[in-house]
Amino acid sequence: MLAEFRGDVVMGVALRELVRSADNRQLEGVARLRGAAVYLPAAVLTSEELEARVRAQSPGVNIPRDAVRRISGVKSRHIAADDEQTSDLAAAAHSYSRRQVRI
After folding, report:
1. pLDDT exceeding 70 applies to what percent of the chain?
2. Domain boundaries defined on the chain
């Protein structure tokens, strides 16, 4: 699943700080961020499903209901497939980004 970045982006914040710290000097050769994209793997694992997996694999471990979500703040996460590498995710995001910017 491809998704466009929306909202504050760490890279954007870093670039803004770089420009602010330049003391109004001309910055020659500064790169401009023309777009960004994210690739989200199709498989989604909810916190409830994660708790169920841990309970099944570790019968002696007592995990309170909804503990993973309360502790981490994460309701669900996208999980890469076994045959999906980080480079595959980056390549898919790059491909999407190039189409958006029309490079």
Report:
1. 62
2. 2-101
Would you say 39 and 96 are in contact if contact means Cβ atoms under 8 Å apart?
Answer: yes
Q: Where are the alpha helices (DSSP H) in the chain?
A: 10-20, 47-57, 67-72, 86-101
- The structure tokens listed for 53 are 């997996």
The helix, strand and coil proportions of the chain, stated in percent and rounded to the nearest 5, come to 45, 15, 45
- Residue 57, classified by CB atoms within 10 Å of its CB into exposed (0-12), middle (13-18) or buried (19+), is exposed
What's the whole-model pTM score?
0.57
Q: Buried (b) or exposed (e) across 59-73, using 16+ Cβ within 10 A?
A: eeeeeeeeebbeeee
